[in-house]
Amino acid sequence: MVRAQEVRVSGQVTSAEDGSMLPGVSVQVKGTTSGTQTDASGNYVISVPSSNSVLVFSFVGLVSQEITVGNQTVLDVALASDLRTLSEVVVTGFGSQIKRDLTGNIAQVKGQDIENMPVASVDAALQGRAAGVYINTGSGKLGEAVTVRIRGNSSISASSQPLYVIDGTPVTTSDQGNYGGETNPLADINPNDIESIEILKDASAGAIYGSRAANGVVLITTKRGKAGKTNVSINYQMGVSEATRRVRFMNAEEYVNFFTRAANTRDRISGYDYDDPDSYTQYMLGPGGFLDYYSYGTFGTPQQGSYDWQEQAFQKGPMQQLDFQMNGGSDKTRFFVSGQYLNQTGTIVGNNLDRISGRMNLDHKAYNWLTVGLSMGLARTNNRRIPGDNAFSNPMQMAALTPLTPFTDPETGLIAGTPPGDVNLPLYYNPLLSVNYAKFLQVSYRNLTSAYAQVNFTPDLRFRSELGIDLLNQNEEGYYQSQTVRNIATASNGLGNNYSTFVTNYNTNNFLTYDKLLGLHEIGATLGMSYQQSQTKRNFVEGTQFPSNSYQKIASAATKSDGSSSETNFRFLSYFLRVNYKFSDKYLLSVSGRVDGSSRFGSNSRYGFFPAVSAGWVLSEENFLKNNNTLSFLKLRASYGLTGNSEIGDFPQLGLYSGDAGYAGAAGQRPSQIGNPDLRWEETLQADFGLDFGLLNNRINGEIDYYVKNTSGLLLNVNVPSTTGFLSQVRNIGKLENKGVELVINTQNTVGAFKWNTSFNVGSNRNKVTDIQGQIIEGGVRSMSRVMEGQPVGVFYTVEYAGVDPNNGDALFYKNTENPDGSVDRSTVTNAGYNTAQRVVVGNPNPKLVGGITNTISFKGIDFSIFFNGVSGNAINFYGVGQYSSANGIYEDNQTADQLNAWTPENPNTDVPEARFYRSNGNQASSRYIYDGSYLRLRTLTLGYTLPKSLTSRIKTERVRVYLSGLNLATFTNYKGWDPEVRTDYNANTYAMGNDFYTPPQPRTVLVGINVGF
Amino acid sequence: MKKTITRYTCLLAASFLLLTACDSKLDVLPTQTIDESTALSTSRDVEVTLIGCYDGMQDVDVYGGAFQVASELLGNDVELNFGGTFQNLLELFNKQITTANSTATLTWNDSYNTINRCNNVLSALDVVDEDKRARIEGEARFIRGSLFFELVRLYARAWGDGDNNLNPGIPLVLTPTRGVNEDNYPARSSVAAVYAQVLDDLTKAKQLLPASNTIYATKNAASAQLSRVYLMQGNYAGARDEANAVIESGRQRLVTPFSSLFFTYLTNGGANPEEYIFSMIVTQQDGSNAINTYFGVNFSAIPGTSGRGDIRVLPAHLNLYEAGDVRRNFFVTTNNTFTQKHLDTFGNVLLFRLAEMYLTRAEANFRLSTVVGATPLEDLNRIRTRAGLGAATTATLDAILRERQLELAFEGHRLHDWKRTRRNIGTRPYNSPMLILPIPQREMDVNKNLVQNEGY
User: Fold this and answer.
1) Each residue's pLDDT tens digit, B411-438
2) What is the distance between the alpha carbons of residues A394 and A155, in angstroms, rounded to a whole number?
3) H or E, element range at B414
4) CB A671 to CB B39 under 8 A?
5) Residue A140 and residue A115 share a domain
6) Out of 3.40.50.720, 3.30.70.20, 3.40.1550.10, 1.25.40.390, which CATH number does the structure's domain B41-446 have?
7) Distance (Å, whole) CA B284 – CA B52
8) To the nearest whole number, what is the mean pLDDT of chain B?
C-alpha cells in the first residue's frame, strides 16, 4: 500500500544539557496513534501522513516539543530537562507515577541534592530536605544512629523510625552495635549511588507497605545505566571537620575561688572551723587536700597552671573521599558501576570511619518480553568508635575534670593517670588513656543485592519478580590495655572482647502490573505478594589476663572470662493490591490494601488488613482554568487509610523463661517476660488533604498538606507493679494523635543564563497522647521524660524551679500542688521540701516547626547553593550535664562558667543558688535545666565552577568542575549546651528525646573537591 | 498467541506457589528463651530455677551490695564520707532522698524479681525429686524470707517504733506471677505480718536445710539470719540461741590473721575463709561485688584491686580503734582513706561470718544475764584477741556494741544496729523518717493500693 503524501522523517534526539543521546524518547504524530521510540543512540525514523503533520517528542522528566514537519526530512531535536517538578517520575511502592497524577503524599529528594555531603549516612543527608520529616543526627560521633520522624512520633514503646526500602528490599537499619551508642547500618550505603529518595508520608502512599508504614517509608532507588555513550566521572574531595560549639567551663583561678567559697559555706552549715583538719575547706585547700593532690602538688606553687580539659576532647578531623562512577549501555544492556573510598576522622579524639564501597547495577532486555537485572552493592565500613555518653571514657566528660590537673604526670611525663604514675588522677578516669591504650573497632561487611525478572505479557500486563538479599556481617573487636584499669576494673592485665553479628535478611516481591488506556479512562493496577525473613545471630567472647599488651587476641587470654551466642528471627508475609484510575486527566482515584502476617504476633491476631483510598481532582484541566497562565496548575487531593507498626522486637507475645540466670558456674533460669497472646498490630489511621499548585506557567509550584494521624492500640510497655517480679507487659493500650500542616514551595526566580531557584519546605506537627489509660511512662535522664495523656510524647516532667532566695542563697521550687479549692499552690519550697513539690510539664522535646530552604544559583560555569535548615519550639534537657557541671559545686566537677554567678551575700539577685560543697542546693532535677533547643543552621554551602568546554575538550575531558563546600558552617541558637541538634545515647528510647549528656557536638566541615567527567 | 498462553500458565503456577507456601513460615519460636508453660516440668527445671533465685539474690541491687551500701550510707554520718557522683548514693548519705532514688527503686524491683523466682520454685515442688525436695524448699524459703526481712527494715519503720500491727511494712507476694490481674496490685502488709512471714520462711528453711550445702544456703545460714531478725525484734533469747546454734555446730571457726578474712579472689582462689557462714559468690564470669564498686579503690600496691573510691573513711572512725588493733591497719590511703575489706574486684560478698555470731551471743547473753555457750566476756575477748588486743577484764554492753561496730564495720550492719539500739545517727533520732527509704515513685504510680512513707 502506498500513501501518496507520506513523508519519511529521521533524526536524533539529544539532551539539551549535555548533548548526550537520548534513547527511548517517544516520537508521536500528533492526533494519531502512530509513533515510535528512539533507539539506543537516540535515532528515530518515522513516516508521517503529510508535511503538515506535527511530531511530538516526549520523555519523562523532559520538556516535550511539538515540531511541524514542513519540508524537512531530517529533524534533530534537543530536549531540555523539565524543571517543573510536575512531570517528574516518582517512585511509589512497587511502581512509579508521574508526580502530577499522585493522590498520596510522597516527598522526593534527588540523589544530586545530597551528593558529596560530608555525612556518613543517607538519613543524615535528608535533614531539612522534605517537609514534615524531622531528622536529628543526635551526636557528632561518626556512623551513629540518626533519629528520623516522619509526621511525628507515632509510637511510644515500639519504634518510631521509618521503614527503609532499597531497590525493593526492606533493609536492616536497627542498631547492631555492642558498644557506645546505637550504630546506623545505613552508613554502609554510599549516598552517591542514590538516584532518588522517596518518602511516603500519608496512608495512601504507605498502605502498600501496610503493617510497616505507620512511621512512613523511605524508598531508596539506586542509579541505573543509561543507554548511549559511556560516561565516566571521577570525584575527589578533601576537607577538615571541627566540632561546632563549646561550652565555657571555669579556668583554674575561677575554680579555686568558686570551690573555696563552696567549701567554706559547707563548713558553716556543718559547723566546722575552716582550720579544722576534718573541715571541707581543709579537704579542698589543705596540705594533701583535694587541690594539692589533683594538681600533682602544684596548687599554690609557681608551677600551678590552668588546663582546658574540654579542648582535649576535640580535634580537627581530616576527611577525604574518592568516587568513581561509570554508566552506559546499549538498547539491550545498560550498566552502572561505581566505587567509593571515604575516610573521615572524627571531631572527637579517637573516632574514625572509613568505607570502601562498590556497586554494579545491570539491566538486560533478553527478549522483547523479558527484562532481567541485578543490583549489587558491596561495602566495608571500619568504624573506630567512641564510648557511650555516660562512660567516663567519653572524651567529652573531660570537661568536668579539674582545671588544675596538668595533662601529663610531671613525674613520669606520661598522660595523667598512666601507670606507673598515680592512676587515681585526674578526678575521674582520663578518657585520653582509652584513646591511647584502648580501641573498639567495628568492621561491617554489607552485601545488598537484588535481582529481578520482568515479563511483559502484553504491552499492558507485566509481571515482576524481585529477590533481594541484605547481608550484614559485622565484627567488633575491643582491647583495653592494662593502663585503662581504672575504667575497667577487669582490665588489670588487659581485656579483649570480640563480637560477631550476622544479619541475613531475604525478601521477595512478586507482582503483576496492569496499565491500560481506554479513551479517557486510564487504569493502573498492581497485585502481588512479598515475603521477608530476617535472622540475626550474635557471638561474643571476652578474655582477660594477657601476657602483655603486645598480645591482643583472645587466643592469648589466660582467662576466657565471658562468652555468649544468640539468635533471633522475624518474618513477614504480605499480599497487596493497588488500583489507580484516572479519567480525562482530571479525576484521579487510587485504592490500595495489604494483608500482613507477622511472626511477632500470636496466632489469635497474626494477620492485619491495611486499606487506603485516595482521590485527586486536577482543577487546572477544567475549562474554567485550562488556559490560565497565572494559576497554571491546581490539584486537590485527599487520602484516608490505615497503616501499622510492629517494631516491638521479636516474641513480645510470649510468656517466657530465660536461661541466663546462672550462679557461680551453675546453670539457672528465670521468668523473663509476661505473655500476652492477644497482642496485635499498632494501627494508624491517617487522613491527608492536599493542594498542589503551579503559578506563572509553573515557575512557582508548591504543595500544601494537612494531615491527621490517629494511632490506636499502641504497642505499649505497660508498667506493672514490680512486686509481680516484672516491670512491664506489652499490651495494645492507648491512643495518640499527630496532626500538622506542611508547605513546600519551589520557585524559578530567574531563568536564562542566570538561573536562580529556591526551594522551601516547612512542616508543623502537633503530637498529643490522647489515651494511655492512666499509665505512667517515664524514662531518660533522671526519668524526666514522660508520656502523659493530653501532652506530646516525651514531655519533660519535673519540679518547677523558682530561682534563688535572695536572703540566703537557697534554691527555691514551686510547690504546684493543688489547694483544697482546686487552685494551684504557687508558693515555694527550698531543698528540704523538694520532695513535696509537684512535678509539672516544663518542656516539649518535639519541635513545633521543622524546615529548610535552599537557594541554587548558576551563571555560566558557576554554581552556588546555600541551604539552611532549622527547628523551633523544642526543649532540651541539659540535666544530664547540669547535675554535675552546673550544680553549684556539689561535686568537685569543673563547673560551667555560668555558675560563677552563684548567690553570695554580695550577689543576692541571681538565679544561680549558693555554692555548697557536697550539699544539694538546686542541683536536683528541675526546670532549671530545661533549655530552648531551637536553631537555625547553615547546613550546606557549595560554590562550584565548571571549566568552559573549550578548555576541557583540550585536555580530553567532558567536564571539569571544582568546588568548595561546607557543612554546618554557622548555627544560630540560644541553647547553652554544646549543640542543639542533640540526642544522647544514654538512657535513650522512643520517647526519651532531647537529652544532652556530655554528647559530642556536630561537626563543622569545610572541603574542596574536583569532579572530572570523561 | 501460544507463547503467551504458556507464559501466563507459568506465571499463575509461580504465583500460586508463592501465595500458598508461606503461612507456616510465620511460626517462629525464640531460641534463648522458652515458654513459661514448659519451663517448670521436671525436677531439673525447678533446680535450675532455684539457681536463678541465687542469681537474683546476687544482683548488685540486692545482696550483691545495695543492702549493705545503703545501710552504711544511711547509718553513717561522720565516720565516712561519700565523694562520688552517683546522686542516688549521695542522697542516701545526705539523708535527702528523693522518691525516684535509683537505689530505692532498683533494690525494690530486683528484690521482688527474686521473690517471684522463689515463688516459682515453691509452686513447683511437687515435680522435684523427693530426695531433693526439702533442701530446695529450704533454700527458696531462705532467700525469700531474707529478702522480705531486708526490705521491711529498709522501707518500713523499725520494729517497735510505734505499733507493729499498724505500721505499714511491705507487700507480701507468695505466689508466682502468671499474667496480671487485680490480685497483682497488693497493699503493704503490716510490719508485724511481714516479720511473721520472715520468721515462718526462715524457721522452715532452718528445719529443711542441710548442715552442709557447698556454696548454697545451709542450716547455719538460716540460723544466722534468724539471729539478726530476733535482734531487730529485741528477742534476745531467740538471737542468742540461733547464734549459739551456729557456734556450737562447729562448722565455722575464727580465722587468723584478721586480714585473711577478705581478698577471697586475690589470695584465696575465690573460696570462702572458714569463718564465712554464707556469702554471694563472685567469679570473673558471673556476679559482681557492688560494695567493692563504691568502697574499693584501685590501689596500685595491691594488684587486682579496683573501685570507684567513692566511700571514704574519715578520721572520726579511725580514732575509735585502740592502740595495737590490727583492724586499725586494715585501711589504705591515697588522698583519701579506704577500708581494705572491699578492695578485691572479684571478692565474694560476705553476708554472715562467725565473729558476728559471737558478738550477737555476747550481747544477748549480757542483756539477759545468761551464759548460754559462753560468758559475754569470753566471747568479747575471742574477738579482741584476734584483733591483736589484750583481753578485757569486764564486759559491758557499750564494750560489746563498740566491738561489734569495729569488727563488723562497713559490712552492712550499721543502720540496723543503730536502729535496734535506738542510737541517733548524727543529729537524727533512730526513727527519723529520713532514715527509711521511700516506696519508689514508680511503684506508687503503678499501684494505687500502696501508701507512701512519712516524709516523702
Assistant:
1) 999 999 999 999 999 999 999 999 999 9
2) 31
3) helix B414-420
4) yes
5) yes
6) 1.25.40.390
7) 18
8) 93
Residues A195 and A128 in one domain: yes
Check whether residue A96 and residue A55 sit in a common domain. Answer: no
Q: Report which secondary-structure segment, H or E, holds B170.
A: none
Beta strand A7-15 with A77-79 is parallel
Q: Check residue B34 and give its pLDDT.
A: 87
Residues of A in contact with B83 (CB under 8 A): 891-892, 918
**pLDDT digit string, tens, across residues B3-33:** 555 666 666 656 655 555 566 788 888 888 8
- Tell me what the mean pLDDT of segment A825-839 comes to: 92
pLDDT number for residue B13: 58
Residue pLDDT, tens place only, B307-329: 999 999 999 999 999 999 999 99
This model of the complex carries an ipTM of 0.92
**Does A164 lie in the same domain as A73?**
no
pLDDT tens digits along A120-134: 899 999 999 999 999
Interface list for A 582-601 with B (CB within 8 A): 597-599
- pLDDT attached to residue A974: 96
pLDDT at B25: 81
Domain final position from A62, A82, A102:
A82
> Which three cell numbers, joined as nine digits, stand for B167?
505500721
CB-based contact B31 A567, cutoff 8 Å: yes
Chain A contacts of B48, Cβ < 8 Å?
659, 661, 666-669
Query: Which one of A289, A457, A657 has the shortest CB-CB distance to B4?
Result: A457
- Rounded to the nearest angstrom, the minimum Cα separation between B27 and chain A is 6
What's the CATH number where A155 sits?
2.170.130.10
Q: Which residue of chain B comes nearest to A675, CA vs CA?
A: B179
Q: What is the mean pLDDT of residues B251-278?
A: 94
Beta-carbon-side half-sphere exposure of residue B262 (alpha carbons within 13 Å):
21
Domain ranges of chain B: 41-446
Q: Do A455 and B7 touch (CB under 8 A)?
A: yes
Same domain, A29 and A126: no
User: Where are the alpha helices (H) located in A147-279, listed in sequence order?
Assistant: 203-206, 252-270
- Residue A142 sits in the same domain as residue A99: yes
- Chain A residues 239-268 with a CB less than 8 Å from chain B: none
**CB–CB of B30 and A656 under 8 A?**
yes
The CATH number for A35's domain is: 2.60.40.1120
- Domain with A192 in it: 86-226
CB contact under 8 A, B335 and A719: no
- Chain A residues 493-512 within an 8 A CB cutoff of chain B: 508, 510, 512
Q: Give the global pTM.
A: 0.87
- Residue B345: list chain A partners with CB under 8 A: 489-490, 492
Res. A705 pLDDT band, cuts 50 70 90: very high
Chain A (317-356) residues lying within 8 Å, Cβ to Cβ, of chain B: none
Find chain A residues with C-beta within 8 A of B115's C-beta: 725
Taking the alpha carbons of B111, B112, B113, B114 in that order, is the dihedral positive or negative? positive
Q: Above 90 in pLDDT, residue A290?
A: yes
Do A524 and A518 contact (CB within 8 A), yes or no?
Answer: no
Q: In this predicted model, which residue has the larger pLDDT, A955 or A793?
A: A793
Q: Helices B236-249 & B354-368, crossing angle to 10 degrees?
A: 140
B284 contacts in A (CB within 8 Å)? 490, 544, 559, 561-562
Query: Tell me, what's the pLDDT at A727?
Result: 93
A725 and A672 Cβ atoms separated by less than 8 Å? no
CA-to-CA distance for B48 and A659, rounded, in angstroms? Answer: 9
pLDDT at A62: 75
Residue A283 lies inside a defined structural domain of this protein: no
